[in-house]
User: Fold DNA helicase from Acinetobacter pittii.
Amino acid sequence: MNLNQAKEQREPLKYNVQQQKFIKERTESGFRRLKGPAGSGKSVVVAGRAANLLREHQSVLIVTFNITLMNYLQDLAVREYPKIRKDATWLNFHYLCRRLCYDASLDSEYAELFQTAKKTRAIVS
Assistant:
C-alpha cells in the first residue's frame, strides 16, 4: 500500500447526489434494492447508510455473502463512523444461517448438514 492509498483510507467517503439521496432518505416500505455494475457505488451507499443509521441511534445489521465483502464494507464504513465495527452487527450469510439454527435449537441438525456434505464430498476440507 502506498502513502496515497493509506491517506485515502482515512478520509471521509465522497458521495454523488444520487448516493446521498439513498443514504439519507428512507423508502415508504423501508426497503431498498440497489442494482448496478461493479464499481457503481453500491457498497459505498451501504456503508454510508449504515453509518447514518447509527448516528440516528438505530440498530444496524449488515449481512454479506462472504467475509471478504464484509471486511471491505467495514473498511469503507469506518471512514464515516469510526466505531461502526463494534456498534453495528456484521454477519456473513453462512454465519447468519448458523446463528439462526442455534437460536432455534437446531444446532444438531445444522452440524449434521455439514457431516452429510463431507461424506458426499460436497464440502472439501
User: Anything to note?
Assistant: Residues 4-31+40-124 form one domain. The chain has one domain: 4-31+40-124.
